Amino acid sequence: MSDENITDRKYVFICGLQRSGTSVFARNIGRLESCTSFKNTGVLQDEGQYLQDVYRPDGAYGGTGRYGFDPRAHLTETSRLLTPENVARLHRTWHSYWDPAKSICVEKTPGNLIMTRFLQTAFPNSYFIVIRRHPVPVSMATQRWKVSLTPLHSLFEHWLRCYELFEADKKHLKRVYELAYEEYIGEPDKYHREIASFIGTRVPEGPFEEVTDVHNKRYFERWGDLLTNSRFKNYYRYIARKYEPRLARYNYSLLSLPGMDQPEQQKSDTSTAVGALYCLGANANALAWRITLQSKWLLKRQLRAHLPEPWKNRIKRFLGKPSLDKQAANVS
After folding, report:
1. Do residues 322 and 308 share a domain?
2. CATH at 30
3. pTM value?
4. Rounded distance, CA 290 to CA 172, Å?
5. Whole-number pLDDT of residue 296
6. For residue 49, what pLDDT is reported?
7. Is 263 domain-assigned?
């Protein structure tokens, strides 16, 4: 795409941590009139970070729940990556996936949250839509990924780290729209209209992807159970008390949730020193699990690389999986 055509485009960047509802939200924004987003690209969640080679994806800085702690992941207008050649390459790459007939280009990558100033410099006509979701469902959903295995206190800290970086960067941005996931699922039509007005387009007729609070409720119930019934409830109560003041600035609480027994859950006699030991223990446990899973993965990889094919087929038959020969026969 020529520079002339690029200047006619608007660039909408969806920002928010993994498990914050960014995927369904971005798909719905991509349905607005004149909008085009990445679809069927073959990469994870059609995220732009995997479709370019100008900057490193968040996996290079620790991955989900950890990348915000690495200073290298926080990109601004001072980045040495912002050369004319790199900017042109980034434009060319992403525009090869956007519909050239549409004038509003939508891109969703969680790491956008801490690289807004970098993106605004590379795409001057940019708009940032930042979505926040309660750190309990975000963090507990992240823990369900085997690739994460990060303790909750670290995930809460990461949530705060990334949104605090954005708060500091926000004053440098020209166009920002912020919303909470909980508000969005309550009135999606309202927010579609507001966002359409923000980026200068309209809401078309036709269905949008539905959103629900079912998952939020389940995670809140699970968190309440950890605070009251877990063998490690002192650890959970300690981190709830520790992060409560900082999260209050975002109108979130770890102690005041629907269906929870507030007076009991707010009791915590754990000292800072003992609480720190709890966190160290949680870190050690998470590290042990990561090492175990990585060792299993490496062992499987070595076996697959060196085992003769007949042995592989025997193992697959033993595990109840069809052999390669049987698969070939079925195809024939």
Report:
1. yes
2. 3.40.50.300
3. 0.82
4. 38
5. 59
6. 97
7. yes
Q: Phi and psi (nearest 5°) for 208? A: -110, 165
Is 277 part of any domain? no
pLDDT at 257: 81
Instruction: Walk across the sheet containing 126-132 and list its strands.
Output: 35-37, 104-108, 10-15, 126-132, 176-180
Buried b (16+ CB within 10 A) or exposed e, 197-235: eebebebeeeebeebeeeebeebbeebbebbeeeeebbb
Last residue of a domain, one of 196, 212, 228: 212
Mean pLDDT by 10 residues, the chain (332 residues): 64 96 96 96 95 96 95 98 98 97 97 98 98 96 72 96 98 98 96 98 93 90 93 93 95 81 54 68 60 59 71 71 43 29
SS (H, E, C) the chain: CCHHHHCCCEEEEEECCCCCCHHHHHHHHCCCCCEEECCCCCCHHHCHHHHCCCCCCHHHHCCCCCHHHCHHHCCCCCCCCCCHHHHHHHHHHHHCCCCCCCCEEEEECHHHHHCHHHHHHHCCCEEEEEEECCHHHHHHHHHCCCCCCCCHHHHHHHHHHHHHHHHHHHCCCCCEEEEEHHHHHHCHHHHHHHHHHHHCCCCCCCCCCCCCCHHHHHHHHHHHHHHHHCCCHHHHHHHHHHHHHHHHCCCCCCCCCCCCCHHHHCCCCCCHHHHHHHHHHHHHHHHHHHHHHHHHHHHHHHHHHHCCHHHHHHHHHHCCCCCHHHHHHHHC
Answer yes or no: is 276 within a domain: no
**pLDDT value for 318:** 74
The parent domain of residue 33 ranges over 3-212
